[in-house]
């Protein structure tokens, strides 16, 4: 799993990690039943605290995307719905727009202009 974090992103790191994992599952990099790398390995690869990764994994478990099994690690329980993926991408787009000085309403206006 190739995850990257944007250190300039104002969102908390656990939200960025959860979003990256959510996208990886939605994009088909991981299918239902696939195991994720251990949280410590993910944390080391990202250069962040393992507790931050665990917080993201628990959030995804609470959404029903991941399943924790003692002795077996963390596996993908299901694939996010189209709406969940769109919401995540909309959040990412809004954060990107804010970096360029656009507000939520500005972004909505841009979307309304699209065919």
TrEMBL record:
Residues 11-79 form the HTH gntR-type domain. The keyword Transmembrane helix does not apply. It comes from the Bacteria. CDD domains: WHTH_GntR. Pfam families: GntR. GO terms for molecular function: DNA binding; DNA-binding transcription factor activity. Keywords: DNA-binding, Pyridoxal phosphate, Transcription, Transcription regulation. This is GntR family transcriptional regulator. The lineage of its organism: Bacteria, Bacillati, Actinomycetota, Actinomycetes, Streptosporangiales.
